[in-house]
Protein backbone atom coordinates (compact mmCIF):
# COMPACT_ATOMS: atom_id res chain seq x y z
CA UNK A 1 0.00 0.00 0.00
CA UNK A 2 1.29 3.49 -0.88
CA UNK A 3 0.26 7.07 -0.30
CA UNK A 4 2.43 8.41 -3.14
CA UNK A 5 0.75 11.30 -4.97
CA UNK A 6 -0.63 10.62 -8.45
CA UNK A 7 -0.62 13.43 -11.05
CA UNK A 8 -4.15 14.04 -12.29
CA UNK A 9 -2.93 13.83 -15.89
CA UNK A 10 -1.87 10.21 -15.31
CA UNK A 11 -5.19 9.24 -13.77
CA UNK A 12 -7.72 11.12 -15.90
CA UNK A 13 -6.92 9.68 -19.33
CA UNK A 14 -9.12 8.81 -22.32
CA UNK A 15 -8.98 5.17 -21.20
CA UNK A 16 -10.19 6.26 -17.77
CA UNK A 17 -13.11 8.15 -19.31
CA UNK A 18 -14.17 5.03 -21.21
CA UNK A 19 -13.81 2.66 -18.24
CA UNK A 20 -12.57 4.01 -14.89
CA UNK A 21 -13.24 0.82 -12.96
CA UNK A 22 -9.85 -0.93 -13.45
CA UNK A 23 -8.15 2.23 -12.17
CA UNK A 24 -10.53 2.37 -9.21
CA UNK A 25 -9.80 -1.27 -8.37
CA UNK A 26 -6.07 -0.57 -8.40
CA UNK A 27 -6.53 2.45 -6.13
CA UNK A 28 -8.62 0.44 -3.65
CA UNK A 29 -5.81 -2.11 -3.43
CA UNK A 30 -2.69 0.02 -3.67
CA UNK A 31 -3.75 3.47 -2.46
CA UNK A 32 -7.23 3.53 -0.91
CA UNK A 33 -6.65 7.13 0.20
CA UNK A 34 -4.80 8.59 -2.74
CA UNK A 35 -3.22 12.07 -2.98
CA UNK A 36 -3.77 13.56 -6.44
CA UNK A 37 -1.93 16.60 -7.77
CA UNK A 38 -3.21 18.99 -10.45
CA UNK A 39 -2.41 22.53 -11.66
CA UNK A 40 -5.57 23.97 -10.05
CA UNK A 41 -5.64 22.17 -6.70
CA UNK A 42 -4.41 19.05 -4.95
CA UNK A 43 -6.81 16.60 -3.34
CA UNK A 44 -7.20 13.21 -1.67
CA UNK A 45 -9.41 10.49 -3.17
CA UNK A 46 -11.13 8.02 -0.83
CA UNK A 47 -12.00 4.85 -2.73
CA UNK A 48 -13.12 2.01 -0.41
CA UNK A 49 -16.77 1.56 0.58
CA UNK A 50 -16.49 1.75 4.38
CA UNK A 51 -14.11 4.72 4.23
CA UNK A 52 -16.32 6.47 1.68
CA UNK A 53 -19.45 5.93 3.74
CA UNK A 54 -17.71 7.27 6.84
CA UNK A 55 -16.28 10.28 4.97
CA UNK A 56 -19.66 11.24 3.52
CA UNK A 57 -20.95 11.60 7.08
CA UNK A 58 -17.79 12.99 8.70
CA UNK A 59 -18.47 16.47 10.17
CA UNK A 60 -14.74 17.22 9.95
CA UNK A 61 -15.09 17.19 6.17
CA UNK A 62 -16.89 20.43 5.43
CA UNK A 63 -19.02 21.20 2.38
CA UNK A 64 -18.82 24.94 3.05
CA UNK A 65 -16.47 25.95 0.25
CA UNK A 66 -17.28 29.60 0.91
CA UNK A 67 -15.94 29.55 4.44
CA UNK A 68 -12.36 30.28 5.53
CA UNK A 69 -9.96 29.88 2.65
CA UNK A 70 -12.55 30.48 -0.11
CA UNK A 71 -11.92 27.01 -1.48
CA UNK A 72 -14.56 27.54 -4.15
CA UNK A 73 -12.10 29.87 -5.92
CA UNK A 74 -9.66 27.00 -6.34
CA UNK A 75 -12.32 24.54 -7.41
CA UNK A 76 -14.90 26.48 -9.41
CA UNK A 77 -13.31 29.85 -10.13
CA UNK A 78 -14.61 33.35 -9.35
CA UNK A 79 -17.65 33.21 -11.65
CA UNK A 80 -19.23 30.46 -9.56
CA UNK A 81 -19.99 32.69 -6.59
CA UNK A 82 -23.46 33.69 -7.74
CA UNK A 83 -24.60 30.15 -8.54
CA UNK A 84 -23.08 27.87 -5.90
CA UNK A 85 -24.10 29.38 -2.56
CA UNK A 86 -26.65 26.68 -1.80
CA UNK A 87 -27.25 23.62 0.36
CA UNK A 88 -24.81 21.50 -1.67
CA UNK A 89 -21.95 23.71 -0.52
CA UNK A 90 -22.94 24.29 3.10
CA UNK A 91 -22.87 22.61 6.51
CA UNK A 92 -25.45 22.47 9.29
CA UNK A 93 -27.12 24.61 10.50
CA UNK A 94 -27.13 26.53 7.18
CA UNK A 95 -27.54 23.30 5.24
CA UNK A 96 -30.44 22.21 7.45
CA UNK A 97 -32.22 25.54 6.90
CA UNK A 98 -31.77 25.44 3.12
CA UNK A 99 -32.69 21.78 2.81
CA UNK A 100 -35.84 22.23 4.87
CA UNK A 101 -37.04 25.00 2.57
CA UNK A 102 -36.26 23.09 -0.62
CA UNK A 103 -37.51 19.79 0.73
CA UNK A 104 -41.09 21.02 0.70
CA UNK A 105 -41.12 20.70 -3.07
CA UNK A 106 -39.92 17.08 -2.89
CA UNK A 107 -42.53 15.77 -0.48
CA UNK A 108 -43.37 12.17 -1.54
CA UNK A 109 -47.01 12.99 -2.21
CA UNK A 110 -46.07 15.91 -4.44
CA UNK A 111 -43.55 13.83 -6.40
CA UNK A 112 -45.92 10.90 -6.84
CA UNK A 113 -48.51 13.29 -8.26
CA UNK A 114 -46.06 13.97 -11.09
CA UNK A 115 -46.09 10.36 -12.31
CA UNK A 116 -48.75 10.85 -15.03
CA UNK A 117 -46.97 13.95 -16.35
CA UNK A 118 -43.60 12.18 -16.44
CA UNK A 119 -45.20 9.30 -18.35
CA UNK A 120 -46.76 11.81 -20.75
CA UNK A 121 -43.38 13.46 -21.43
CA UNK A 122 -41.73 10.07 -21.98
CA UNK A 123 -44.47 9.05 -24.40
CA UNK A 124 -44.17 12.30 -26.33
CA UNK A 125 -40.42 11.96 -26.75
CA UNK A 126 -40.70 8.34 -27.90
CA UNK A 127 -43.51 9.22 -30.34
CA UNK A 128 -40.90 11.26 -32.22
CA UNK A 129 -38.16 8.61 -31.94
CA UNK A 130 -40.07 5.40 -32.60
CA UNK A 131 -40.80 5.80 -36.35
CA UNK A 132 -37.17 6.62 -37.17
CA UNK A 133 -35.55 3.27 -36.41
CA UNK A 134 -32.53 5.08 -34.97
CA UNK A 135 -31.81 7.80 -32.44
CA UNK A 136 -29.25 9.55 -30.33
CA UNK A 137 -30.69 8.53 -26.98
CA UNK A 138 -28.89 11.35 -25.16
CA UNK A 139 -30.09 14.18 -27.40
CA UNK A 140 -33.50 12.71 -28.20
CA UNK A 141 -34.46 11.23 -24.84
CA UNK A 142 -32.16 11.08 -21.82
CA UNK A 143 -31.35 14.80 -21.70
CA UNK A 144 -34.72 16.35 -22.61
CA UNK A 145 -36.76 14.07 -20.30
CA UNK A 146 -35.48 15.32 -16.94
CA UNK A 147 -34.95 18.82 -18.34
CA UNK A 148 -38.64 19.10 -19.28
CA UNK A 149 -39.68 17.74 -15.89
CA UNK A 150 -37.49 20.04 -13.81
CA UNK A 151 -38.39 23.04 -15.96
CA UNK A 152 -42.05 22.51 -15.20
CA UNK A 153 -41.28 22.06 -11.51
CA UNK A 154 -39.35 25.33 -11.42
CA UNK A 155 -41.92 27.21 -13.46
CA UNK A 156 -39.67 27.87 -16.49
CA UNK A 157 -41.83 28.80 -19.49
CA UNK A 158 -41.78 26.21 -22.25
CA UNK A 159 -40.68 28.86 -24.73
CA UNK A 160 -37.42 29.22 -22.75
CA UNK A 161 -36.60 25.51 -22.53
CA UNK A 162 -34.35 25.36 -25.59
CA UNK A 163 -32.18 28.28 -24.47
CA UNK A 164 -31.89 26.99 -20.90
CA UNK A 165 -30.98 23.54 -22.17
CA UNK A 166 -28.35 24.95 -24.55
CA UNK A 167 -26.52 26.87 -21.83
CA UNK A 168 -26.67 24.08 -19.25
CA UNK A 169 -25.17 21.73 -21.82
CA UNK A 170 -22.27 24.15 -22.37
CA UNK A 171 -21.39 23.67 -18.69
CA UNK A 172 -22.05 19.92 -18.75
CA UNK A 173 -19.89 19.29 -21.83
CA UNK A 174 -17.06 21.60 -20.79
CA UNK A 175 -13.76 20.25 -22.05
CA UNK A 176 -15.22 18.15 -24.87
CA UNK A 177 -15.77 20.76 -27.59
CA UNK A 178 -12.23 20.75 -28.95
CA UNK A 179 -11.90 24.51 -28.47
CA UNK A 180 -8.65 25.97 -27.11
CA UNK A 181 -8.69 26.01 -23.28
CA UNK A 182 -8.99 29.81 -23.02
CA UNK A 183 -11.92 29.85 -25.45
CA UNK A 184 -13.58 26.94 -23.64
CA UNK A 185 -13.21 28.71 -20.29
CA UNK A 186 -14.73 31.88 -21.73
CA UNK A 187 -17.64 29.89 -23.13
CA UNK A 188 -18.37 28.30 -19.75
CA UNK A 189 -18.17 31.68 -18.04
CA UNK A 190 -20.61 33.04 -20.62
CA UNK A 191 -22.99 30.15 -19.84
CA UNK A 192 -22.74 30.77 -16.10
CA UNK A 193 -23.44 34.46 -16.59
CA UNK A 194 -26.40 33.78 -18.88
CA UNK A 195 -27.97 31.28 -16.49
CA UNK A 196 -27.44 33.58 -13.51
CA UNK A 197 -29.09 36.45 -15.37
CA UNK A 198 -31.91 34.23 -16.61
CA UNK A 199 -32.71 32.95 -13.13
CA UNK A 200 -32.67 36.48 -11.72
CA UNK A 201 -35.14 37.51 -14.42
CA UNK A 202 -37.28 34.44 -13.68
CA UNK A 203 -37.39 35.39 -10.00
CA UNK A 204 -38.49 38.91 -10.95
CA UNK A 205 -41.25 37.52 -13.19
CA UNK A 206 -42.46 35.09 -10.51
CA UNK A 207 -42.54 37.86 -7.91
CA UNK A 208 -44.94 39.75 -10.17
CA UNK A 209 -47.01 36.66 -11.04
CA UNK A 210 -46.39 33.76 -8.61
CA UNK A 211 -47.52 30.26 -9.49
CA UNK A 212 -47.60 26.73 -8.09
CA UNK A 213 -43.92 26.08 -8.78
CA UNK A 214 -40.61 25.78 -6.96
CA UNK A 215 -39.30 29.25 -7.78
CA UNK A 216 -42.48 30.86 -6.44
CA UNK A 217 -42.13 28.73 -3.31
CA UNK A 218 -38.53 29.87 -2.86
CA UNK A 219 -39.56 33.49 -3.33
CA UNK A 220 -42.12 33.07 -0.56
CA UNK A 221 -39.41 31.61 1.69
CA UNK A 222 -37.24 34.63 0.92
CA UNK A 223 -39.76 37.48 1.01
CA UNK A 224 -42.40 36.32 3.49
CA UNK A 225 -40.57 33.93 5.80
CA UNK A 226 -37.11 35.50 5.63
CA UNK A 227 -35.35 32.12 5.64
CA UNK A 228 -33.58 32.61 2.29
CA UNK A 229 -31.40 35.45 1.10
CA UNK A 230 -31.71 36.70 -2.48
CA UNK A 231 -28.37 35.13 -3.37
CA UNK A 232 -29.43 31.81 -1.85
CA UNK A 233 -32.72 31.97 -3.73
CA UNK A 234 -31.06 32.28 -7.15
CA UNK A 235 -28.35 29.78 -6.28
CA UNK A 236 -30.87 27.22 -5.03
CA UNK A 237 -32.87 27.61 -8.23
CA UNK A 238 -29.68 26.90 -10.21
CA UNK A 239 -28.92 23.83 -8.09
CA UNK A 240 -32.41 22.46 -8.65
CA UNK A 241 -32.20 23.18 -12.37
CA UNK A 242 -28.79 21.64 -12.92
CA UNK A 243 -28.87 18.78 -10.42
CA UNK A 244 -32.48 18.10 -11.33
CA UNK A 245 -31.66 17.07 -14.86
CA UNK A 246 -27.90 16.48 -15.21
CA UNK A 247 -27.46 13.38 -13.08
CA UNK A 248 -30.73 11.78 -14.19
CA UNK A 249 -29.87 12.28 -17.86
CA UNK A 250 -26.41 10.80 -17.40
CA UNK A 251 -27.79 7.91 -15.36
CA UNK A 252 -30.31 6.96 -18.04
CA UNK A 253 -27.56 7.00 -20.67
CA UNK A 254 -25.16 4.96 -18.53
CA UNK A 255 -27.91 2.48 -17.62
CA UNK A 256 -28.84 1.88 -21.25
CA UNK A 257 -25.19 1.27 -22.19
CA UNK A 258 -24.87 -1.17 -19.28
CA UNK A 259 -27.95 -3.09 -20.43
CA UNK A 260 -27.01 -3.07 -24.11
CA UNK A 261 -23.54 -4.43 -23.33
CA UNK A 262 -24.92 -7.09 -20.97
CA UNK A 263 -27.51 -8.79 -23.24
CA UNK A 264 -28.41 -11.52 -20.76
CA UNK A 265 -29.34 -8.89 -18.19
CA UNK A 266 -31.28 -6.93 -20.80
CA UNK A 267 -33.19 -10.08 -21.76
CA UNK A 268 -33.95 -10.77 -18.11
CA UNK A 269 -35.36 -7.27 -17.62
CA UNK A 270 -37.48 -7.49 -20.77
CA UNK A 271 -38.83 -10.86 -19.59
CA UNK A 272 -39.51 -9.71 -16.02
CA UNK A 273 -40.35 -5.98 -16.16
CA UNK A 274 -41.49 -6.09 -12.53
CA UNK A 275 -37.79 -6.30 -11.72
CA UNK A 276 -37.29 -2.72 -12.94
CA UNK A 277 -37.32 -0.85 -9.57
CA UNK A 278 -34.72 -3.27 -8.23
CA UNK A 279 -32.76 -3.05 -11.49
CA UNK A 280 -32.57 0.74 -11.23
CA UNK A 281 -30.66 0.42 -7.94
CA UNK A 282 -28.21 -2.10 -9.39
CA UNK A 283 -27.67 -0.01 -12.52
CA UNK A 284 -26.95 3.03 -10.36
CA UNK A 285 -24.48 1.04 -8.27
CA UNK A 286 -22.86 -0.36 -11.38
CA UNK A 287 -22.23 2.90 -13.26
CA UNK A 288 -23.49 6.01 -11.54
CA UNK A 289 -23.49 9.51 -13.04
CA UNK A 290 -21.56 11.16 -10.18
CA UNK A 291 -18.29 9.25 -9.84
CA UNK A 292 -16.89 11.52 -7.13
CA UNK A 293 -19.04 13.27 -4.55
CA UNK A 294 -18.90 17.07 -4.61
CA UNK A 295 -15.77 18.37 -2.87
CA UNK A 296 -15.21 18.48 0.85
CA UNK A 297 -12.57 20.37 2.86
CA UNK A 298 -10.81 18.98 5.93
CA UNK A 299 -11.38 21.34 8.87
CA UNK A 300 -8.63 19.66 10.88
CA UNK A 301 -5.90 17.09 10.35
CA UNK A 302 -7.50 13.71 9.57
CA UNK A 303 -6.35 10.16 9.05
CA UNK A 304 -7.99 7.55 6.83
CA UNK A 305 -6.31 4.17 6.20
CA UNK A 306 -3.18 5.47 7.92
CA UNK A 307 -2.86 8.38 5.47
CA UNK A 308 -2.69 11.86 6.97
CA UNK A 309 -5.02 14.39 5.36
CA UNK A 310 -3.86 17.87 6.46
CA UNK A 311 -6.28 20.58 7.50
CA UNK A 312 -7.45 22.58 4.47
CA UNK A 313 -7.09 19.66 2.06
CA UNK A 314 -9.76 19.04 -0.56
CA UNK A 315 -11.20 15.52 -0.34
CA UNK A 316 -13.08 13.62 -3.03
CA UNK A 317 -15.15 10.59 -2.03
CA UNK A 318 -15.12 8.26 -5.04
CA UNK A 319 -18.66 6.90 -5.02
CA UNK A 320 -18.28 4.78 -8.16
CA UNK A 321 -15.20 3.08 -6.73
CA UNK A 322 -16.89 2.43 -3.38
CA UNK A 323 -19.87 0.93 -5.18
CA UNK A 324 -17.59 -1.66 -6.83
CA UNK A 325 -15.73 -2.59 -3.64
CA UNK A 326 -15.66 -6.41 -3.42
CA UNK A 327 -15.57 -6.13 0.39
CA UNK A 328 -19.14 -4.77 0.17
CA UNK A 329 -20.49 -6.20 -3.09
CA UNK A 330 -19.55 -9.69 -4.20
CA UNK A 331 -18.07 -9.57 -7.71
CA UNK A 332 -18.76 -5.84 -7.68
CA UNK A 333 -17.57 -5.26 -11.26
CA UNK A 334 -20.37 -7.48 -12.58
CA UNK A 335 -23.87 -6.23 -13.42
CA UNK A 336 -26.42 -8.46 -11.70
CA UNK A 337 -30.01 -7.23 -11.73
CA UNK A 338 -30.97 -9.96 -9.26
CA UNK A 339 -28.28 -8.91 -6.78
CA UNK A 340 -29.62 -8.59 -3.27
CA UNK A 341 -30.20 -4.91 -2.77
CA UNK A 342 -27.47 -3.39 -0.63
CA UNK A 343 -26.74 0.08 0.71
CA UNK A 344 -25.00 1.54 -2.32
CA UNK A 345 -23.80 5.14 -2.21
CA UNK A 346 -25.22 6.24 -5.55
CA UNK A 347 -27.48 8.79 -3.87
CA UNK A 348 -24.88 9.73 -1.27
CA UNK A 349 -25.06 9.22 2.48
CA UNK A 350 -25.60 11.31 5.58
CA UNK A 351 -27.03 14.83 5.72
CA UNK A 352 -26.29 15.43 2.02
CA UNK A 353 -28.24 12.35 0.85
CA UNK A 354 -29.87 13.24 -2.48
CA UNK A 355 -33.00 15.31 -1.93
CA UNK A 356 -34.47 14.41 -5.32
CA UNK A 357 -34.08 10.65 -4.97
CA UNK A 358 -37.80 9.88 -5.40
CA UNK A 359 -38.07 11.96 -8.56
CA UNK A 360 -34.86 10.50 -10.04
CA UNK A 361 -36.05 6.94 -9.41
CA UNK A 362 -39.44 7.68 -10.94
CA UNK A 363 -38.00 9.25 -14.09
CA UNK A 364 -35.52 6.40 -14.55
CA UNK A 365 -38.13 3.69 -14.00
CA UNK A 366 -40.68 5.23 -16.36
CA UNK A 367 -38.10 6.25 -18.96
CA UNK A 368 -36.06 3.03 -19.12
CA UNK A 369 -39.19 0.90 -18.91
CA UNK A 370 -40.69 2.70 -21.90
CA UNK A 371 -37.49 2.39 -23.93
CA UNK A 372 -37.46 -1.37 -23.44
CA UNK A 373 -41.16 -1.73 -24.28
CA UNK A 374 -41.33 0.53 -27.30
CA UNK A 375 -37.99 0.02 -29.04
CA UNK A 376 -37.61 -3.68 -29.93
CA UNK A 377 -34.24 -4.85 -31.16
CA UNK A 378 -32.55 -1.91 -29.48
CA UNK A 379 -28.77 -2.00 -30.01
CA UNK A 380 -25.76 0.30 -30.05
CA UNK A 381 -24.92 1.75 -33.47
CA UNK A 382 -21.19 2.02 -32.68
CA UNK A 383 -18.83 -0.17 -30.64
CA UNK A 384 -18.98 0.71 -26.95
CA UNK A 385 -15.38 1.94 -26.99
CA UNK A 386 -16.28 4.45 -29.71
CA UNK A 387 -19.00 6.18 -27.71
CA UNK A 388 -18.30 9.88 -27.14
CA UNK A 389 -18.11 10.55 -23.42
CA UNK A 390 -17.65 13.51 -21.15
CA UNK A 391 -13.98 14.23 -20.40
CA UNK A 392 -12.28 12.06 -17.79
CA UNK A 393 -11.80 15.06 -15.48
CA UNK A 394 -15.49 16.02 -15.64
CA UNK A 395 -17.33 15.80 -12.31
CA UNK A 396 -19.94 13.76 -14.16
CA UNK A 397 -19.80 10.36 -15.83
CA UNK A 398 -21.96 10.52 -18.89
CA UNK A 399 -22.21 10.41 -22.65
CA UNK A 400 -22.23 13.19 -25.19
CA UNK A 401 -23.95 10.93 -27.72
CA UNK A 402 -25.63 7.53 -27.54
CA UNK A 403 -26.38 6.38 -31.10
CA UNK A 404 -28.71 3.38 -31.27
CA UNK A 405 -30.88 1.59 -33.80
CA UNK A 406 -33.99 -0.53 -33.34
CA UNK A 407 -36.95 -1.99 -35.21
CA UNK A 408 -39.21 0.86 -36.28
UniProtKB/TrEMBL annotation:
Alphabetical list of Pfam families matching this protein: p450
Gene3D superfamilies to which the protein is assigned, alphabetical: Cytochrome P450 (1.10.630.10)
GO biological process: antibiotic biosynthetic process
GO MF annotation terms: heme binding; iron ion binding; monooxygenase activity; oxidoreductase activity, acting on paired donors, with incorporation or reduction of molecular oxygen
CDD domains for the chain: CYP107-like
Keyword terms, alphabetized: Heme, Iron, Metal-binding, Monooxygenase, Oxidoreductase
Family of the protein in this entry: Belongs to the cytochrome P450 family.
Name of the featured protein: Cytochrome P450
Species name: Asanoa ishikariensis
Amino acid sequence: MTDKAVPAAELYTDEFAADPYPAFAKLRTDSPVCPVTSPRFDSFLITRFEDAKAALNDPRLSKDLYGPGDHYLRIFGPNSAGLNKNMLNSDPPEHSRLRQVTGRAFAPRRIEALRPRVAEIVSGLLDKVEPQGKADLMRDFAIPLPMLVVSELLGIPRTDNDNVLEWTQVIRESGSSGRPPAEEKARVQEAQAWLHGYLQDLVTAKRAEPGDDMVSMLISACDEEGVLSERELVSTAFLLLFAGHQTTADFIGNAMVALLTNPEQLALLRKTPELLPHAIEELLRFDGPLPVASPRVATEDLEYQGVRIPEGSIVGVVINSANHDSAQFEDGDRLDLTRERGPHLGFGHGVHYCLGVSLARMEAQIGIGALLRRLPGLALSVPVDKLRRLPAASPFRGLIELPVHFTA
